[in-house]
């Protein structure tokens, strides 16, 4: 009997959400992501390598603060609340091809 039993190996999935940001001004080997503010550069590099097998050369990050609505003289709030986030510009070893944008007619049945 072997020592391997089904169901005993633990698999940990990351609890991180990376949003791909389409930026046409970046070179073909750079990609922009919107990531949570508690993620550091090493986490970004590690995540992209282990989940997507991307070879990362460099990571640059920028922190953006939360925005609050402005109260006008008539007492009405203008604008909306946005949470803080971090933008990461990742330089890859190879050129990156953006996936095609989703077709809105295919997404209508999810409403």
TrEMBL record:
<protein>
    <submittedName>
        <fullName>7077_t:CDS:1</fullName>
    </submittedName>
</protein>
